[in-house]
Write a structure and sequence with these properties.
single chain, 535 residues, alpha/beta, five-stranded parallel β-sheet, 8% strand
Length: 535
């Protein structure tokens, strides 16, 4: 039996996989993949990386270095290269600014880099019917300078053929460059995983992309990508039940705005941000965070005249959009995606004054109004339906505990309280049942029972949710964070304050844990004896 037949008849390998395994193995083992694909791209990468250094350090001849670097770059069409090089020569300042967005050494997500570059890179530079794919090709070539094994070349026609051949779902045609490229990377990752399961070892995305381009007609039928259950994964990280997050999501979908309220330390802001990022598919540029405070005004939040230095060096004022308008404009341009505005400490500002006439739009997303600082050439403003608002509200602050009924009608309110789930069980889950520090959860519960007459004064779990937590750290947190809070809350009630002394509560909590464990052991022993008697 020849080698080919052995591969075909190997159990568990689909016939399409048999052909792919044979072809891919020869392509890799012969060294052809390295010679014809990998080495050529590595040579290009060295040149593009040199151009990147020139751009970052402002060396004058960076356009020439970039032109020479990309000249042999295969998937970029020569017409696209000519257009790109012409733009760099004629608009060096704008071009350098765009390149710095995609090449700067900061911790940005792939989508953030791509979208930041695309905002500065004019659409007219790359023309043609497949402009979106062509722009993504240019972007992939630039990203190779950062890490070619992570960011291989892109060409939309070849990837579309690969999707068709393998049965992998195609991206939506309306998607932007970031989604097109990230979809291709997800495809390569999926191919790497399934290929390894069939004995073909692709080291990284560059290997996978090389195989895809050379062996397009032999690509196997891939299994469906693993279903992503973002809320389930987030629930595990938060120590919540997934039902809780699904409920919050449904409330958001219904009214488009919610407020998470509760005492300090209950994780309101953290949950709000993590949930927003999760529902925004982890695109950080779709999440805007602002924090209200007593001096925060309409001009800060919506739009107003802000101090500026004019071109002649004189001080003046300029009309500028606030975070709400900026988030709304971004969401309007990206109608297929969810965008979020997270407002921390929403009740610390004068809400009616900060929102102004936009109070109306919170309830009527399908209507538009004329804004206070609207320019004559502008159309009336409306809040896009894909912009969601998540506020957080600290109920322990007596001075700001009340909000007007108009706000309550426009938002759903979700309670985060240490006496109720989802918050009640978070700390015990995080510490771990039976752990050495399980008593900390009991100590917090004992303290909250002492505070039950003032439900908004409860102590939240986040004080103690630290990776390096030990008994010494618990003592420090209690004495320097929790105790000052309790003393302020119970000002003038010295006898009650004494009940919260650290060592006293710690001993009570540890004794409670010991009693529960002894009771559990007794039940187990009784059950063992009963079974022995039955036998």
């Amino acid at each position: 039996m020849d080698e080919e037949k052995k591969v075909v008849e190997k159990p568990g390998i689909h016939s399409s996989w048999a052909k792919f395994v044979e072809r891919a193995s020869k392509f890799i083992e012969s060294g052809e993949m390295v010679r014809s694909e990998v080495l050529i791209k590595l040579e290009t990468v060295y040149k593009v990386a040199a151009a990147r250094e020139a751009v970052i350090f402002g060396i004058a001849d960076w356009p020439e270095l970039l032109q020479r670097a990309l000249m042999p770059m295969y998937p970029i069409d020569y017409r696209q290269l000519d257009d790109l090089n012409r733009w760099c020569r004629e608009n060096p300042d704008d071009a350098r600014r765009a390149l710095l967005e995609i090449w700067k050494a900061t911790k940005l997500s792939d989508s953030e880099r791509i979208r930041a570059f695309s905002r500065v890179f004019p659409h007219e530079v790359v023309s043609g019917r497949g402009r979106r794919g062509s722009r993504t090709t240019v972007i992939s070539a630039l990203l190779m300078a950062l890490d070619v094994e992570r960011y291989p070349s892109f060409r939309i026609t070849l990837f579309e053929q690969a999707y068709e051949q393998t049965g992998y779902p195609k991206p939506k045609t309306s998607n932007d460059e970031a989604v097109l490229y990230e979809h291709a990377l997800a495809f390569l990752d999926h191919l790497i995983l399934e290929a390894r399961n069939h004995g073909v070892h692709l080291r990284h995305r560059l290997d996978a992309q090389s195989v895809v381009w050379k062996l397009t007609d032999y690509l196997p039928v891939l299994g469906p990508p693993s279903p992503k259950n973002e809320l389930s994964d987030l629930a595990k990280r938060l120590q919540f039940e997934v039902d809780t997050l699904e409920k919050i999501e449904s409330l958001l979908e219904d009214k488009r705005q919610i407020i998470i309220q509760g005492p300090p330390g209950t994780g309101k802001t953290y949950v709000a941000l993590e949930l927003a990022r999760c529902l925004a598919d982890e695109y950080k540029d779709r999440v805007t965070l602002v924090q209200f405070h007593p001096s925060y005004a309409y001009e800060d939040f919506v739009r107003g005249y802000r101090p500026t230095i004019k071109g002649d060096g004189e001080a003046g004022f300029e009309l500028k959009d606030g975070p709400l308008i900026r988030a709304a404009k971004k969401a309007s341009k990206d109608g297929d995606s969810k965008h979020f505005l997270v407002i921390d400490e929403i009740n610390r500002g004068n809400i009616a004054k900060v929102f102004g006439e936009l109070y109306f739009l919170l309830e009527y997303r399908d209507r538009s109004i004329r804004m206070q600082y609207q320019q004559d050439i502008e159309e009336d403003f409306s809040l896009p339906k894909n912009l969601y608002i998540i506020g957080t509200m600290n109920t322990a602050d007596r001075s700001i505990a009340l909000v007007d009924l108009a706000l309550r009608r426009r938002f759903y309110f979700i309670e985060f309280h240490p006496h109720r789930d989802p918050v009640k069980s978070v700390l015990r889950k995080w510490l771990g049942k039976g752990s050495e520090l399980e008593w900390v959860a009991d100590m917090v519960e004992i303290a909250n029972d002492l505070l039950k007459e003032d439900r908004h004064a409860a102590i939240g779990p986040s004080y103690f949710m630290k990776n390096d937590l030990n008994e010494m750290m618990v003592k420090l947190i209690w004495e320097h964070s929790v105790t000052p809070y309790i003393e302020e809350r119970l000002f003038g009630e010295n006898r009650r304050i004494d009940e919260f002394e650290y060592s006293k509560l710690r001993d009570q909590a540890k004794q409670k844990v010991r009693n529960e464990r002894l009771a559990g052991q007794a039940i187990q022993e009784k059950g063992f004896k009963d079974k022995t008697v039955e036998r």
